[in-house]
């Protein structure tokens, strides 16, 4: 049985943490910190079905979401005290979840934002922050100094001839969208 890279990393982290605890001499704070690190790692690699398990709009609370999904990449708090939490599953992942919490602290919706409908909403002149609010953290960022542009890329499930592709947003020197593009995922042999 061959382990995938993320599975191997998980086992290495678990073994290292167990060894540290077994060695003793750790304060409770250090042990708690190690467990938090382990949980954060597990949350980042667990399958989406487990990540979202048991979360119900109108019932689940902000604390329920954090307990189940872990720490978000970003959290935006709006004027009405509603929130949007960002959970990218990348850089190799194909999903980014935006979790909307109402002013009452209850889950409103969980939306997978890496879809063609959202990509079509990206417009020339949008700021990097506006794009980030719509699509979440890019899986890749490339700076092209000679062209004076930065390209953010998200891997997504396109569903065409190739199941996976990259959606790219090109920014000019002013940090504003100049164009968008798509590119193939190059597979090694």
UniProtKB/TrEMBL annotation:
Species annotation:
Paraburkholderia dinghuensis
Give the Pfam families listed for this entry: BamE
The protein's name: Outer membrane protein assembly factor BamE domain-containing protein
User: Keywords, A to Z?
Assistant: Membrane, Signal
InterPro entries, A to Z: BamE-like (IPR037873), BamE_dom (IPR007450)
Q: Where is the Outer membrane protein assembly factor BamE domain?
A: 116-179
Superkingdom as given in the UniProt entry = Bacteria
- Coiled coil ranges (UniProt) are none
List, alphabetically, the GO terms of the cellular component aspect: outer membrane
| Lineage start | Bacteria, Pseudomonadati, Pseudomonadota, Betaproteobacteria, Burkholderiales
Keyword set includes Cell membrane: no
């Amino acid at each position: 049985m061959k382990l995938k890279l993320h599975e191997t990393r998980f086992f290495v982290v678990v073994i290292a943490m167990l060894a540290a605890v077994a060695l003793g001499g750790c304060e409770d704070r250090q042990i708690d910190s190690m467990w938090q690190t382990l949980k954060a790692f597990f949350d980042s690699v667990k399958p989406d079905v487990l990540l979202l398990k048991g979360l119900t709009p109108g019932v689940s609370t902000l604390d329920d979401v954090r307990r189940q999904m872990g720490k978000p990449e970003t959290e935006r708090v709006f004027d009405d005290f509603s929130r949007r939490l960002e959970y990218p599953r990348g850089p190799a992942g194909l999903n980014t979840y935006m979790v909307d919490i109402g002013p009452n602290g209850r889950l409103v919706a969980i939306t997978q934002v890496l879809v063609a409908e959202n990509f079509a909403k990206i417009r020339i002149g949008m700021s990097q922050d506006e794009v980030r609010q719509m699509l979440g953290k890019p899986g890749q960022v490339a700076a092209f100094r000679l062209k004076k542009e930065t390209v953010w890329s998200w891997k997504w499930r396109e569903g065409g001839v190739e199941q996976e592709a990259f959606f790219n947003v090109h920014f000019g020197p002013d940090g504003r969208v100049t164009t968008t593009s798509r590119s193939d995922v190059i597979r090694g042999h």
